[in-house]
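Deliverable D2.4 — example input (structure tokens):
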């Protein structure tokens, strides 16, 4: 069944390359679509002088409430995992969007909180981001969006869950990385 809209091309055609399997085609389509969507949002964020990852940290801190979060917890909640959470928070703090305090019980923990200026920034971005969210999926029916979410959730769980056992997606890649081949 083909639900392609006008002007829609297969990913192999768009990238001018052969795909070796359905899995390869799906991976290329997923990565390319994520890149295109990320660029759409990055264009919105750049107007306010914030990056995609900085916006993600601000949203995480907003959702954490007034108590904030330790830096390591922020990293675990990010959409794109990055070892540079401290650098991102450094930049946000220098712009006045985040404040940090050292923990009283555990001085090794640094607690991050969104500031009033950070809240104002998120408020300014709220409308444009909501419109982009809606626009991004306008061509899909609600049930197609649900199916997409379910498929991506299932794939991500099978890749990341060690209890999935042998044959789970990514196993060959992880084994090759360990042996260097």
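Example output (designed residues):
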């Amino acid at each position: 069944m083909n639900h392609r809209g006008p002007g829609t091309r297969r990913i192999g055609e768009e990238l001018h390359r052969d795909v070796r399997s359905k899995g390869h085609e799906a991976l290329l389509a997923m990565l390319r679509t994520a890149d295109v969507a990320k660029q759409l949002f990055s264009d919105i964020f750049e107007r306010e002088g914030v990056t995609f990852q900085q916006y993600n940290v601000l949203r995480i801190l907003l959702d954490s409430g007034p108590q904030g979060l330790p830096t390591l917890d922020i990293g675990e909640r990010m959409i794109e995992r990055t070892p540079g959470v401290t650098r991102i928070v450094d930049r946000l703090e220098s712009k006045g969007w985040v404040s940090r305090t050292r923990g009283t019980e555990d001085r090794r923990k640094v607690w991050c909180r969104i500031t009033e200026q950070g809240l104002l920034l998120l408020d300014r971005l709220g409308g444009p981001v909501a419109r982009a969210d809606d626009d991004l999926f306008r061509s899909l029916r609600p049930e197609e969006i649900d199916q997409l979410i379910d498929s991506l959730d299932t794939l991500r769980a099978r890749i990341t869950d060690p209890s999935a056992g042998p044959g789970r997606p990514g196993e060959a890649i992880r084994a090759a990385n360990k042996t260097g081949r």
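The CA atoms of residues 171 and 177 lie 10 Å apart.
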